[in-house]
Each structure stands twice: as C-alpha cells, then as structure tokens.
C-alpha cells in the first residue's frame, strides 16, 4: 500500500511540474518560435502610429529575429530599421542617445564638453561667436566625417549641445549611417555599430585639442618618467576619462562590461585633476629666502595647457611674530603661470623674485620650475596657496594652502 501511495505522489508531483513548465516564461518564449504576418503587421502599425525610437526599438527587439520567416515580415523589419535610423540620425541631437545610453548621457551632460558652446569664457573670447575660426571645435560636426587629421566643421543645428555624442560617435557616409565606438560586440537594432581603435588613442582628442596634443606627442623624448609607459597606455583618455571599475552596460540592452571610461572629461575645472597635476611641488624657507619648486611629471602636457586664459597662481603672504602682515606691497608674492597661448587677464608680480624670464609661461612636460623670494624680516611666518583661475569672472579653485614658520 505504501508503494502505491508513493507512486501516486510521484505522479501528482510530475503533473504539477509539467503544468509549471508549460506556463513558465521560458516555455512561452520557446513556443514563440514563429509568428504570422498578420501579427507582425499589427505590431508594425502600432509602432508606426507612435513613431518614436522607443516604439521601433521595442518592435525590433520582439520581432527582429523573425526576419527570415517570410519576405513580407522581412519588409516590416527593414522598414522599422529604416524608421528608427531616420529618427536617430536626422535629429542630430544627443537627446536621442539618452534613450538607450542614459548613464553615459548623464556623465556627458555634466561635463564641459556639453557646455563648450554656451561657456561664458568662450562667448567672451569670441566676442559672442564673432570669431568664426574658433567655432568648429565648440560645436563640431562628426569628426569621423571630416577626418581625424582635419579641423572639424561647425554644426548648423543643436550648437547648444557643444561637443555632443554626434561629434565623436557618428559616421554618415552615403546610404549607411553608423555609430562608432571602441567595442566590437555592440550589436543593436537601433543602428549600425562600428568599432574603431582610435577611440583609445590621443588622436581623437587632438582634432580639437591640437596644442595639447602636440605637447603630448613630445613626451617620448622629453619626459623620462612617462617613458616607462607606452603611448597606448598614457593617452588623453587615461587621465581625462575616469575609469569605471564597476561592471556596467553602456547601453540599456548591451552586455555588462568590466572596465569602461566615464564621459566626464575631467580637466581644469576638477579640483582632483588639478591636485594630481600639482602633486610634485615644494615650498621651503632657506637662508632667508622663500623657495618654490614645481616639477611637471604628473601631466603629459604643459601646465596649464590650452589656448585660453587659464592660470596657476602662487601667492604667499608674510607675517611678523605678532601675526601682523609685513607692509611690503601688502606682503604678497604672486606668481602667475599661464598657457603660452593664453590672453593675459590678471596682474603680474607684486613682489620681485630673482627670476630671469617673464611672467606668463606654462611649465612644460618634465620641466622644473624654481623661484626664490627674499624675505623682508628674520622671524615670522609665511602663508601660501596655489590656486587655479579659469574664466573672465575670476572663478578660482584653491588647490593647496599651508604655512611655514621661520
């Protein structure tokens, strides 16, 4: 009797399992190995009525794999792909990329690439966009279309997006529109995808950052520290696109990637980046003099770099033993280091040093900058700081500050 009961128990269990399997999503998916033309047509018409990137992407995700079922279904799939491609590429806007690449979009949106056209300093420097030779790099057409070795063309639309997703990732050539990136396994129904190794090379950035790129190209023969790393390891992207060590997908339906780069494009507006650039500095007092020494081993270009009024400023104030400022031109030492191509925007020295060259030169790659300032009193203290200034509004960031007793 016991064995009969066990038999019926097993039979009931197997029946329950069979029912569960038949009603599971796995079984439902497996059953949907084919579709009929009417079903695809209805779904196509629904997507057509909405005519959005999301609607077409949902349609292609569900029915794209059935394109070989019949010529009619293949036509629906081809028309859907053409429709979504037109919506993406005709828009010319990064907003269309946001639908599938939301995290990447958010990183870019908070970067200064996104503000390249609307930036106050840029508008001032170009007299409100009147200097037309400066415009292309602040709202460039896709650089893969104009060529990585040529100056880009300025866009006619969506200029307020600055250096947009389209600027770096789109290639429109003849009848084919593609999105270019660093990965070879980036298949999607939304667009054709191409992989290009240039995405990990400095030449991508050199299209617009020509001065800095030329400085970077010299590191092989100038910077002994950077010589320990190959050019492929030490590119613009290495320092200016933060490494994301958490596995993530760069697109909503893409594979998880273990190591990606953030589209934050950190530079002079990042205090962390500035501190990294100035990590090899020292301020000392010796033989009645204040000694300043900065070594540019941390960057692969001049410090600062670029073609605008960016400056590192060293300031030191002298106080006596009673903590009173020494009345020698307000007791202030001011050193200004600015990009060679920058337009001067601030005053020069307030206290003379025994320097032979003039104020205003950047510190080149691997170069050592040293200055000595005679102290006006025997005993007291020096309070100093190094700040970075960028912009006509006097915006500044304090990078380091300290004091020395003497």
Indicate the radius of gyration in whole angstroms: 30 Å
Count of DSSP strands: 12
- The termini sit apart by 102 Å
Q: If you average the pLDDT, what whole number results?
A: 79
Residue share in helix: 25-40%
Query: Counting H and I runs of at least 4 residues, what is the number of helices?
Result: 15
Question: What does the overall shape look like?
Answer: elongated
- Element pattern in H and E: HHHHHHHHHHEEEHHHHEEHEEEEEEE
Give a quick account of the main beta sheet: strands, pairing sense, barrel closure.
Answer: 4 strands, antiparallel
In percent, how much strand structure appears in the residues? 15-25%
List unreliable stretches of 5+ residues.
1-31, 336-360
Q: In order across it, which strands form the biggest sheet?
A: 9-8-11-12
User: Helix/strand/pairing class, anyone?
Assistant: alpha+beta
The overall number of domains is 3
Structure description:
With 406 residues, the protein is α+β, with helices and mostly antiparallel strands. The chain folds into three domains: 37-91, no CATH class; 99-261, no CATH class; 271-405, Immunoglobulin-like (Sandwich). The protein has 15 helices and twelve strands. It has helices at residues 2-22, 25-31, 37-50, 53-63, 71-91, 95-98, 102-109, 120-125, 143-146, 165-169, 203-206, 210-217, 219-222, 236-240, 271-277; strands spanning 170-173, 176-181, 192-195, 243-244, 260-261, 281-286, 289-295, 310-319, 332-338, 368-374, 381-390, 396-405. The strands form four sheets. A four-stranded antiparallel beta sheet has the order 9-8-11-12. A hairpin with a 2-residue loop joins strand 6 and strand 7. Helix 3 packs antiparallel against helix 4 (53-63) and helix 4 (53-63) packs antiparallel against helix 5. It is elongated and about 95 Å long. The model is unreliable at 1-31 and 336-360 (pLDDT under 50).
């Amino acid at each position: 009797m016991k064995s009969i009961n066990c038999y019926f128990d097993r039979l009931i269990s197997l029946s329950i399992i069979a029912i569960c399997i038949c009603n599971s999503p796995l079984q439902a998916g497996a059953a949907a190995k084919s579709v009929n033309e009417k079903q695809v047509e209805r779904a196509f018409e629904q997507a057509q009525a909405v005519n959005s990137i999301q609607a077409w992407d949902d349609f292609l995700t569900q029915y794209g794999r059935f394109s070989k079922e019949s010529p009619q279904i293949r036509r629906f799939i081809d028309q859907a792909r053409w429709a979504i491609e037109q919506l993406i590429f005709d828009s010319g806007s990064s907003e269309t990329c946001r639908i599938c690449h939301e995290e990447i979009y958010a990183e870019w949106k908070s970067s200064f690439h996104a503000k390249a056209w609307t930036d106050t300093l840029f508008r001032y420097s170009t007299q409100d966009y009147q200097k037309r030779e400066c415009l292309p790099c602040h709202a460039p057409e896709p650089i893969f279309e104009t060529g990585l070795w040529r100056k880009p063309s300025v866009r006619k639309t969506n200029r307020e997006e600055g250096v947009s997703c389209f600027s770096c990732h789109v290639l429109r050539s003849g009848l084919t529109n593609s999105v270019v990136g660093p990965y070879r396994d980036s298949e999607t129904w939304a667009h054709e995808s191409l992989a290009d190794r240039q995405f990990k090379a400095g030449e991508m950035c050199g299209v617009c950052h020509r001065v800095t790129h030329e400085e970077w190209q010299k590191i092989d023969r100038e910077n002994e520290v950077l010589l320990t790393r190959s050019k492929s390891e030490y590119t613009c992207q290495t320092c200016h696109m933060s490494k994301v060590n958490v596995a993530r997908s760069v697109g909503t339906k893409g594979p998880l990637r273990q190591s990606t780069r953030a589209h934050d494009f950190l530079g002079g507006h990042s205090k962390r980046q500035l501190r990294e650039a100035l990590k090899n500095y020292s301020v000392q007092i010796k033989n009645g003099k204040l000694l300043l020494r900065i070594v540019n081993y941390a960057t692969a270009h001049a410090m600062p770099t670029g073609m605008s009024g960016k400056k590192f400023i060293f300031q030191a104030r002298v106080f006596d033993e009673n903590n009173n400022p020494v009345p020698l031109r307000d007791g202030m030492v001011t050193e200004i280091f600015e990009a060679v191509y920058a337009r001067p925007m601030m005053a020069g020295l307030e206290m003379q040093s025994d320097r032979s060259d003039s104020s205003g030169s950047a510190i080149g790659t691997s170069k050592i900058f040293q200055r000595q300032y005679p102290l006006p009193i025997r005993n007291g203290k020096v309070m100093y700081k190094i700040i970075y200034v960028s912009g006509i509004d006097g915006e500044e960031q304090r990078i380091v500050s300290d004091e020395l007793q003497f």
